[in-house]
Specification:
It is a single chain. With 754 residues, this protein is α+β, with helices and mostly antiparallel strands. 59% of the residues lie in helices and 15% in strands. It contains 28 helices and 16 strands. The strands form 3 sheets. The protein has a 6-stranded antiparallel β-sheet, with helices on both faces. Strands 8-7-11-10-9 form a 5-stranded antiparallel β-sheet, sandwiched between helices. A hairpin with a 2-residue loop joins strand 13 and strand 14.
């Protein structure tokens, strides 16, 4: 093949490949980008409607609980049972309503009660005649008729929903009222008018998405909130909603369902408290997104084609240079008049024969593979070129079937140091590896490498991840059941050659960083990691609880490690969006508040006056500065708590013990003890254990048993049942069991030994 023909064919082939390859890449890129954007919008809108449900349902639940508490209050019962108007009972009911609902003014809720035989209704701000109440509430004639008809039906545990417009601090406000009829056991009935101000009922949810938010009851609109849509669009959507019944949301999808109407997506979710549906209409921007992607794709395609043509010309010209050089060395014809490919084929055959001979030489001189070689290859310390000829054949044989690296994490063994010696831990590790090798010898070969005190690496001669995962899950589950310990395996991606096992090892190390995400799994693979949602912050409840526990216990080093892991995962490993970062900051702020709550402290006790954690953290634009600030906050809290514990532990502990000494005859609890000293139960538990070397319950029981022994020493004839009641036990059997626990014998035998 001469030079001109070679150039032409090579150039044409490259251009065709580039055109096709670039076309498919652009199409795939456009499709995936559109899919990703649409998915992100869906996730954001679903999160929005779920947050709306959570916050409104929470307000409704609180109000329902308060109303249910009223029903069992003696003042309300007296008020409802009085046949004639009794102003004393009326005033007591008014004071009860005021005391009950003043503390929950942020709910935007006020409650009015009445009786069938009395036109005077009672609320937290006073009493009012029924007609004036209806007028003040803004009920029209139709509403009045519905209310009167509802009240006359004598229905129980039912409610009627009414929308009205009333005055609130000289402003017109929309009010949603529930009229409920409650019947007492004696036949007495009360009417409850539970009213919510619309603007306070709807939550302030972080979302920039335009749309229409609706509350439906039996597919009827009871409230709506326009989030930036034109009025004519809102009217059209309200008309569509009124003329269509939304079916029940999918129960196995947390009550959530998605539908569509014209250029709107409809997000529907069921209330968990009322017979409601929350509906959110949001724009479906698919058409505009596709249009933008087509324009962007066309521009990118043209740029790639231009670069491809230029690159192809340069590559084609350059690729002939080695051929020309070879021809000039081995033949006098260097002007392209000979068939270059025939010459290359001959040279390739000669090189192949040389390689076969070389492999034969290596095979005849090979020795067994050493552990050091395996570890060096695993850590990437040594490569193929640095392996001696004696070891190279063993390495080649090991990688013939492909290899996969799995890392065993023994962290839980470290947590059992109180029960196992270091020698015992090493013995358990050796037993684990022996069992794993024995259980898998029929399926594949395994080579072990000790990495450090907490980890071992398994080099598995198998590439099928499903087979490896199945075997490891079976073995580790069996070990967990027999030895009562949980060992986790992190399985890297398979590789074709032993010289690439460091890649599989790096994958396994990467997977280890997600071990708290998959705390229920015993064998985690890269496929599990790939299934994680991209835009979601990492802050599991277990991790947060550990952080709070270490901080309030004054364990600075442990809390620093947990916090560093949280910040590294969210700020380094994950690229959080602005909205998700805001949610993560809010979660961190909530943790700070929980810690301060546990310790009975305010923000001002730890930080300067006026310091507002969430607002200040939101002002940081640089991730590194934000990370440093969060670390400073937790460091300050830990230092403050540690100093406070040193200064107060002795004093508070004595007061706690004195309270027990004076009240041990009652059924006191840790919660009661904490409330008595205005502290959280968790903080009291820590203080108690640190000063007494035992928990609250053990101390209380031990004190009671000592008191029982004093009484028995002075009065041997006292009955066991009477004695158990004297020292605060509700059950005789419980007293006998606790007595035997601390004294080793029953109270009866104790008396016999006196």
């Amino acid at each position: 093949m001469q030079k001109r023909v070679f150039y032409k064919k090579l150039f044409t082939t490259y251009i065709a490949i580039i055109l096709l390859y670039t076309f498919f890449i652009i199409i795939l890129f456009s499709y995936k980008t559109n899919e990703l954007k649409h998915t992100q919008v869906d996730i954001q809108n679903r999160r929005f409607i779920e947050n709306v449900r959570e916050q409104i349902d929470k307000k409704l639940s609180i109000t329902n609980k308060l109303v249910n508490q009223l029903l069992i209050n003696k003042d309300i019962i007296n008020y409802s049972s009085s046949k004639e108007r009794n102003y004393y009972f009326l005033l007591k009911a008014r004071d009860l309503l005021k005391n009950t609902f003043e503390s929950f003014s942020d709910l935007g809720t006020y409650v009015t009660i009445g009786k069938p035989n009395d036109s005077l209704y009672v609320s937290s701000i006073g009493s009012v005649e029924k007609d004036k109440f209806f007028k003040d509430m803004g009920f029209n004639e139709t509403d009045k008729a519905r209310i009167i008809r509802f009240l006359e039906t004598n229905s129980n545990e039912q409610y009627l929903t009414i929308n009205s417009l009333t005055k609130y601090y000289n402003y017109d406000v929309k009010v949603l009222s529930f009229i409920a009829s409650k019947e007492f056991s004696g036949g007495d009935r009360l009417f409850f008018f539970i009213s919510y101000i619309k603007e306070l009922l709807f939550p302030v949810v972080l979302s920039d998405e335009l749309g229409l938010l609706l509350l439906l009851e039996d597919n009827k609109i009871i409230l709506e909130q326009n989030r930036g849509l034109p009025e004519d669009t809102v009217k059209a959507l309200l008309s569509y909603t009124s003329n269509n019944k939304f079916s029940k949301s999918i129960s196995n999808n947390h009550g959530y369902k998605k539908d569509s109407h014209k250029n709107f997506d409809i997000h529907i979710i069921d209330s968990e408290v009322m017979n409601w549906k929350y509906v959110f209409f949001s724009y479906n921007n698919t058409a505009s997104i596709i249009k933008k992607l087509i324009i962007q794709s066309a521009i990118i395609y043209l740029i790639f084609i231009g670069l491809g043509v230029l690159l192809t010309y340069m590559v084609t010209k350059r690729m002939y240079l080695p051929v020309k050089k070879i021809l000039s060395i081995f033949t006098e014809d260097s002007n392209g008049r000979i068939d270059e490919f025939t010459y290359i084929e001959k040279e390739t055959s000669r090189i192949k024969e040389s390689n076969v001979k070389l492999k034969e030489i290596i095979r005849t001189n090979s020795i067994s593979l050493k552990d050091k070689l395996l570890k060096d290859l695993l850590l990437g310390i040594i490569n193929k070129d640095k392996i001696s000829a004696e070891l190279k054949n063993d390495a080649d044989e090991l990688g013939k079937k492909g290899l996969t690296v799995a890392i065993l994490d023994y962290t839980q063994l470290e947590d059992n140091k109180d029960h196992l010696s270091e020698e015992g831990i090493l013995s358990v590790k050796a037993e684990l590896l022996t069992r794993i090798k024995h259980a898998t010898e029929k399926e594949f070969n395994i080579h072990t490498v000790e990495l450090d005190y907490n980890k071992s690496a398994l080099i598995i001669e198998e590439k099928t991840i499903s087979i490896i995962q199945k075997q490891i899950v079976f073995i580790l589950s069996e070990i967990s059941a027999s030895l009562d310990i949980n060992i986790v395996a992190f399985i890297g991606s398979p590789v074709d050659s032993v010289y690439d096992i460091f890649k599989s090892y790096k994958d396994a190390i990467k997977i280890m960083e997600f071990k708290y995400v998959f705390h229920q799994k015993v064998a985690i693979t890269m496929e599990d990691i790939n299934k994680l949602k991209i835009d979601k912050y990492f802050y599991p409840l277990e991790v947060e609880n550990n952080l709070i526990k270490y901080v309030i216990q004054g364990k600075e080093e442990e809390s620093k490690i947990v916090l560093d892991n949280i910040l590294r995962e969210n700020f380094t490993e994950r690229k959080l969006s602005k909205e998700t970062l805001s949610l993560f900051i809010f979660a961190i702020t909530a943790t700070v508040n929980r810690i301060l709550q546990h310790t009975g402290k305010s923000i001002e006790d730890i930080f300067d006056d006026g310091f507002i954690t969430y607002i200040e953290l939101k002002t940081y634009k640089d991730i590194k500065n934000l990370e440093d600030k969060i670390k400073d906050i937790f460091c300050s809290i830990s230092t403050g708590i540690k100093i406070d514990m040193k200064t107060q532990t002795g004093t508070i502990a004595e007061r706690l013990k004195n309270y027990i000494h004076h009240n041990y005859k009652r059924d006191i609890s840790l919660v009661e003890l904490a409330n008595q000293f205005n502290l959280s139960p968790g903080y009291v538990s820590v203080l108690f254990r640190s000063s007494n070397s035992m928990n609250f319950k053990d101390y209380l029981n031990m004190y009671r048993i000592n008191k029982a022994k004093e009484i028995l020493n002075g009065n041997k004839s006292i009955k066991i049942k009477e004695l158990s009641e004297i020292i605060g036990f509700n059950s005789t059997n419980t007293f006998i069991r606790i007595f035997k626990k601390y004294e080793g014998i029953s109270p009866g035998k104790y008396v016999d030994n006196l």
